[in-house]
Amino acid sequence: MTETNALVLTEVRGRIGCITLNRARALNALSLEMVRELMAALLEWKDDPQVLAVALRGSSKEGVFGALCAGGDIRFLHQAGSTGNPQLEDFFTEEYALNHLIHHYPKPYIAFMDGIVMGGGMGISQGASARIVTERTKMAMPETAIGLFPDVGGGYFLSRCPGRAGEWLGLTGDMIGAGDAIALNLADGFIASEQLPALWETLITREFGDSAAVQQWIDGQLGTTEAHHAGRQSEIDRFFALPTVPAIVDALEADGSDWAQATAATLRKRSPLMLHVVLEQVRRAREMDLADDLRMERDMVRHCFYLRPGQSETVEGIRALAVDKDHAPRWNPARIEEVQEADWQAFFVSPWPAHAHPLAGLAD
């Protein structure tokens, strides 16, 4: 194993490539260095006949497990976006390439989605062949709260949730637990957190004949658990199938239910501009393969920082949440009703010709 002060610990145990995210104090938020270490390990094991499968877990202040990954390192994004640090571009290009590799990994990739799994944490786990959730799982794509959008393939995997759940999760950033994650096709099965250490140990010590045997065994360990939002699917579909963000918010505000009122209040706190962008993103992504979705998201994230110099919603959103912590972002435009069609449509114009796109080489 690499030295214990490393941010990503990698080793081969038995026939399993083991990855432990080791940045517990930052909830394993992904830095560029971590993305590079993950990519290097996965590429090395991809063609290694000794490695039959890969297992990914996070660590918490109490030890292993407890938190998978809270997302990308947003303090770095704020610093880089404020100062023109070119590593900002590298981070997104390499992170999205990593997400694509995980979705297409030729061996079982087992993600232990314990604790917080948000943003970039979803990016390194949604492509897994076994997505394991626990009673501690807190899953979300909360990017609209920081003036961003659900990237890392979020358009692809959210748009493939049942009905309009993808629009709901992408716009609100609402958090879900294990049962809802399974019901919404964002997880494959449940295991109680107390059973994780024993499961991990068995995985790395058990004799497996081939990769298929690993997948079959892990699938046999997965259970189910109660979903809480499943009963709201018809409501979610009714509101979030509406054609525009103003129409969705108007309908929610006109509805008398506590859920509708709370959902409308949540949307009113998010970046008005990015709500419009996300609605279009999810709907476009329904008709895209993963590579095309990631290319679209790479265009979008470039625009999040550079489309409006000095007026980045993302830099402002992170400032309010994580830097100054005043929780009072100054969104521009300030209200949902003030966003013009041209404002959000600009995010879907690629800044690169197709042959020069940073992710031109991705293929599904």
UniProtKB/TrEMBL annotation:
Keyword Hydrolase recorded: yes
Keyword Hydrolase attached: yes
Domain spans labelled Enoyl-CoA hydratase/isomerase: 16-348
CDD domains given in the database record: crotonase-like (cd06558)
Stretch forming the signal peptide: none
Pfam families linked to this entry: ECH_2 (PF16113)
Keywords: Hydrolase
Name listed for the protein in its UniProt record: Enoyl-CoA hydratase/isomerase family protein
